[in-house]
Amino acid sequence: MREVTLEDKLYSIEELTVPRIWAVHKMYDRLSTESKFLFLPGFLGSEGIGIRWFLLQICLLLCSIKSVRRLLLLVVPQFVILPLVAMKERKEIAGFTYLRVYPHKLSNERRLTADLGIAIADSHQGKGLGFELTRAVIDWAKEQSLSEITAYCLVDNTRAIQLFRKSGFSETRIIRGRATRGMTKHDVQEMKLAVNNDV
C-alpha cells in the first residue's frame, strides 16, 4: 500500500479486494458519459452486461484474491488482471487501475506483457491521482516481472496522453477506428513502456 497527499486529501493506493469490487462498479457508474468513453476497456459498471462482462468479472474476482492471482500468473497468465484502487481517506473509491496480463506475442520465451486501464472519479480528476495510480501500477508490474505495458487512449484525449508520457510511455502507433461510440468509430493512440528490460 502507498499513501499520497494531493490537495490536502490523503489517498491510499492498494490492491483491490473482493469486498471493494462493487464499490469500484458504483464509482464507474457515477462517471460522466465522457469519462466512461475515455476508459476504453468498459468492463466496469452496469452497462454492457453480457457473457464477456461476466467472464471479466470472474477474472476480477479471482484476481482480487492474492493467492489465487499468484497461481493464475504461473498457470494461465492470460486470465490475470492486476487491479489497484485509490481510496480517499480510506473510505471512498476515487480511482481504479489495472493491468490485463498476457503472454508476449512475439517472444518464444515466457515473457509477460500487460494492457493498462485507468479510471478516475470525476470529482478527483486533475489532481495528480491518475499519475500516482499509474506509478503504482508500473511498480507493481516490475514486482510481477512483466516486460512491457501498453496503454490505449483516444487520440484526442490529450490529458491521458500527457499522463502516459509523464509516466514514461512512448507513442507507438495510431489504431484507426478501434473505439466505437454510438455509430461513430474513433482512432486510438497506442503507447508502450518497457518495464523490465532484463526479463
Structural class: alpha+beta
**So how many helices?**
6
What's the story with the biggest beta sheet?
Answer: 8 strands, mixed
Instruction: State which percent range the strand residues make up.
Output: 35-45%
Mean pLDDT, all residues: 85
CATH topology: Aminopeptidase
Alpha carbon gyration radius? 16 Å
Form type: globular
- Determine the fraction of residues in helical runs and give it as a percent range: 25-40%
Query: Superfamily at the CATH H level?
Result: Gcn5-related N-acetyltransferase (GNAT)
- Strand order of the main beta sheet, please? 1-2-3-4-5-6-8-7
Could you give the distance between the termini?
A: 25 Å
Low-confidence stretches: none
Architecture, according to CATH?
3-Layer(aba) Sandwich
CATH class categorisation: Alpha Beta
Question: How would you characterize the overall build of this protein?
Answer:
With 199 residues, the protein is α+β, with helices and mostly antiparallel strands. The chain contains 6 helices and 8 strands. β7 (170-181) and β8 (184-194) form a beta hairpin. Helix content is 31%, strand content 36%. An 8-stranded mixed β-sheet has the order 1-2-3-4-5-6-8-7, sandwiched between helices. The chain has helices at 21-29, 33-38, 51-63, 66-75, 129-143, 158-166; strands at residues 2-6, 9-15, 81-88, 92-103, 112-120, 148-154, 170-181, 184-194. The protein has a single domain (2-150), classed as Gcn5-related N-acetyltransferase (GNAT) (Aminopeptidase, 3-Layer(aba) Sandwich), CATH 3.40.630. The model has no long low-confidence stretch (mean pLDDT 85).
